[in-house]
Amino acid sequence: MEFDPTRPKWAQIADVLRERITTGEYAPRTLISEVRLEQEFGVARITVRKATAALREDGLIITTPGMGSFVTDASGGGESAD
Question: Could you tell me the pTM of the whole model?
Answer without folding.
Answer: 0.87
